[in-house]
């Protein structure tokens, strides 16, 4: 399954409701699993972004739908990146002319 790295920033709403963040994490995990994905890790970070999630999904469309659903609640903004394993990258490089 494709791998995704999503960077989240808490909104003012999400910051005000910080005590419920662990429950929101659990709900997000359930959502990702419901579209056929898997959460490899969720990390609260210091710096420009507040949360980093590493997930797998059955397709780009499924991953996008899950992240859009999470962001639509108003607690976070997000940026998702498709991540390629070393093996996947080596296969891509082999296709270069």
3D architecture notes:
The chain has one domain: Alpha-Beta Plaits. 41% of the residues lie in helices and 30% in strands. The longest helix has 14 residues. The mean pLDDT is 96. It starts with a strand and ends with a helix. It is built from four helices and four strands, in the order βααββαβα. It has a four-stranded antiparallel β-sheet with strand order 2-3-1-4.
Note the topology.
Elements: E1 3-10, H1 12-16, H2 21-34, E2 38-44, E3 51-56, H3 60-71, E4 76-83, H4 86-94
Antiparallel strand pairs: 1-3, 1-4, 2-3
What tags apply to this protein structure?
alpha+beta; Alpha-Beta Plaits; 30% strand; 4-stranded antiparallel sheet; elongated; 4 helices; 41% helix; 97 residues
Quick structural overview:
The protein is α+β, with helices and mostly antiparallel strands. The protein is built from four helices and four strands.
Average pLDDT = 96
CATH architecture: 2-Layer Sandwich
Helix content: 40-55%
Query: What's the total count of β strands?
Result: 4
* Total tally of structural domains: 1
The CATH class label is Alpha Beta
Listing every helix as H and every strand as E from the N terminus to the C terminus, the arrangement reads EHHEEHEH
Shape summary? elongated
Gap from first CA to last CA: 26 Å
Residue stretches low in confidence (pLDDT < 50, at least 5 long) are none
């Amino acid at each position: 399954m494709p791998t995704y790295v999503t960077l989240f920033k808490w909104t003012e709403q999400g910051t005000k409701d910080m005590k419920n963040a662990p429950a929101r994490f659990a709900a997000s995990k359930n959502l990702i699993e419901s579209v056929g994905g898997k959460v490899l890790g969720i990390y609260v970070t210091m710096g420009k972004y507040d949360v980093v999630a590493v997930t797998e999904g059955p397709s780009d469309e499924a991953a996008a739908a899950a992240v859009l659903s999470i962001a639509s609640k108003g607690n976070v903004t997000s940026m998702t990146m498709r991540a390629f394993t070393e093996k996947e990258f080596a296969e891509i490089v082999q296709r270069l002319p």
